[in-house]
Amino acid sequence: MAVITTIEDLKRLHERRVPRMFYDYAESGSWTEQTFRENTSDFDQIRLRQRVAVDMTGRSTKTQMIGEDVAIPVALAPVGMTGMQHADGEIKAARAAEAFGVPFTLSTMSINSIEDVAEATTKPFWFQLYTMRDEDYVARLIQRAKDAKCSALVITLDLQILGQRHKDLKNGLSAPPKLTAKTIANLATKWSWGIEMLGAKRRTFGNIVGHVKGVNDTANLGAWTAEQFDPSLDWDKIAKLKDQWGGKVILKGILDAEDAKMALKVGADAIIVSNHGGRQLDGAISSIRALPSILEAVGDQIEVHLDSGIRSGQDVLKAMAMGASGTYIGRAFIYGLGAMGQKGVTKALEVIHKELDLTMALCGETSIKDLGKHNLLIPKNFEGDWQD
Fold first, then answer.
1. How far lies 94's CA from each of 9, 78, 113, 117, 255, in Å?
2. Which residues are catalytic?
């Protein structure tokens, strides 16, 4: 058994174990993948200030996100098709998150349904909503999340139309995979994945199949989803969805200070500075670069969380010290899930927790709430000196 000390170790195991189309789905961005790459490389530009002769006993990484206690300031981000990375993937990730003490966010495009995850867990999870043209379906989806006692609705704003991800098109991505010659050849090398998948509760989109008129198999599903993302989504519709939900709302996909102000205006409880992991607008700036201007615009009036690019506890510390009040991991927990199932998600969280705790200590801090820009060395032109 390999000794796992980093998220990169889990990524290598994930690539070895999971069919190529699902590994590529997790590990790709749109177009040239510039934004996907810079989400992580921009974190590398920020340095940490080491401080010594500080009493480091009694450290704690505990804090809160939208009023909920968290063991570390990290939530599991919504990731579509998580149940294709590992059999019953959403259930296993949700259980790992619950046991560790961090929020789990279930994607609209999950394999396990809202009801499956609710049945398998004891604490409320968060539900991520993609707005669809079918308003009746959206209303029923929101009601299902309410019935499952979800404690927050995460509305994704940056997928009104789907960004082009070349690898997914070339691989013929589908859930379950279509059995082409290329796919069969790849699946033949992934026996353990295939055997576990035979015993999975579901192998297609559990929140959609059986819940939409006329969608009862994967052939219909592809046609339905291709037409369903709502290009007419605007702030009025977001306000209506917020009222429909009636609970805590987090708006995901904010990358511009003006949009952050609009999110504040509609009364969101938190925003997530995110570029969808570099999977939508290629050429957009990284989330960590966008964070300072958004904090300047709305920082003390709303919780500002950060997603896209977090691969370590040091990244979490950098985002929190820059002023974020929470972070999300997507790929980092998916690598763990694909590598080792529920144990792998726990391992990813343990790795991040350990890195965060040790780094915090070596920066001379004992509490998340005390982190600030004084812990960082930020390049002078970090945000970019752009022409007006």
1. 22, 11, 12, 7, 27
2. 276
